[in-house]
Amino acid sequence: MSEDDNSMEEYPTEIHDYLTAFEKSLGSVDEMLKTMMSVSRSELLQKLDPLEQAKLDLVSVYTLNSMFWVYLATQGINPKEHPVKQELERIRTYMNKVKEIADKKKASKLDKGAASRFVKNALWEPNAENEHTSKTPAKGKKRQ
């Protein structure tokens, strides 16, 4: 009997797919972390504008806290009763604030000059010429 067969008997077969997916996810996280760690943080931040720097910092701290959440769960500690839950909620709040700022930056700006010209031309203004033409009947129309 091989070691793999022995380990298959130690846990229910229903969770084998979940464990396989978890292992693949850990591999992906490991690759991403190696990529991020290969570049110095100061070098990376120099290439980003302040909003992008904030996004990077928030994603980094959220990922770290999420990994700690998983660690607590693997140790049999309920992460919902641990302070890490409040920390994740706090980070989410800041992520939403950064998202709002980014959305405002992308929103179209109002051209006040064009808007005032549009409104001015759309409104009817009585003047001497308009009063004169309104008193005389239009050509081709019969009065009743």
Low-confidence stretches: none
SS content category: mainly alpha
Helix content: over 70%
- What is the N-to-C succession of helices and strands? HHHHHHH
Intertermini distance: 108 Å
Largest sheet: none
Query: What is the radius of gyration?
Result: 33 Å
How many runs of DSSP E, i.e. beta strands? 0
Question: What integer is the average pLDDT?
Answer: 81
Shape verdict: elongated
Strand residues, percent: under 5%
Count of DSSP H/I helices: 7
Summarize the structure in words.
- The protein is an all-alpha fold.
- Among the domains are: 33 residues; 57 residues, no CATH class.
- Helices cover 71% and strands 0% of the residues.
- Helix 4 packs antiparallel against helix 5.
- The longest helix has 25 residues.
Could you write a compact summary of the structure shown?
The protein has 144 residues and is mostly helical. It has seven helices and no strands.
What's the arrangement of secondary structure elements?
Blueprint: H1 3-8, H2 16-38, H3 41-46, H4 50-74, H5 84-106, H6 112-122, H7 128-135
Characteristics:
mainly alpha, 0% strand, 144 residues
